[in-house]
């Protein structure tokens, strides 16, 4: 389910809980809505509000950290690819096959991460980009370095290729991480309890309904933001393909 669909469902559930609380208030005996009862409900709802605020703040921070980590890994991969290509160029004509494989690997990685992106980058004839990075390491190790300058460039290329493969595995693991459904379900349940309590305490009029609607919209928006940040390669706040396209243009030279 998309972040927009989840946010829409949360908006309906939370606002509906507020309406249910207002309807329930009219059915309760008078002593259930006395000042003492309202005070008890206010304290209970306040506790849930505090817990929900803490969890929401933690989740937004965690989601932003995840987004930044994926973006950082992509930038490191792009920088390592550009550096590796320059070092391979210094290794002489014997490194042409490794440079071709590097260009194909970067092109395939771009299309794997952003299937809808338009790019003229070459791609691998078969296999996954992460597997191609391992083959690239073998090609770098087998380079025929004849001069001291070529041997130095090969040593740097060997180190950069290892870093590139390591960052690629990290990225694969990161992009398979997401928010647990149980956490979202518990948070939505807490929000529904809050609005149910608000409905028990509030009179039924247009001002209250508008306030409930705006508050429910804000709560749904917070969850939407969290879900979007946990989907950094797609959606409204996605990391753009240009993260890999710009260094790839250098690699393609």
What are the main properties of this structure?
253 residues; mainly alpha; 8 helices; 77% helix
Secondary structure topology:
Blueprint: H1 3-27, H2 35-90, H3 96-113, H4 129-141, H5 148-175, H6 181-201, H7 206-229, H8 242-251
Could you describe the 3D structure shown?
- The chain has 253 residues and is mainly alpha-helical.
- It has one domain (3-251).
- Helices cover 77% and strands 0% of the residues.
- It has eight helices and no strands.
- It has helices at residues 3-27, 35-90, 96-113, 129-141, 148-175, 181-201, 206-229, 242-251.
- The chain starts with a helix and ends with a helix.
Summarize the structure in short.
The protein is an all-alpha fold and 253 residues long. It has eight helices and no strands.
Note the gap between the termini.
41 Å
Count of runs of 4 or more consecutive helical residues: 8
Strand content: under 5%
| Domain tally | 1
Low-pLDDT parts are none
Using only CA atoms, what is the Rg?
27 Å
Number of strands: 0
3D shape: rod-shaped
Helix and strand content put the structural class at: mainly alpha
Order of helices and strands: HHHHHHHH
Query: Mind describing the biggest β-sheet?
Result: none
Oligomeric state, counting identical vs distinct chains? single chain
Mean pLDDT value: 87
Share of helix, binned: over 70%
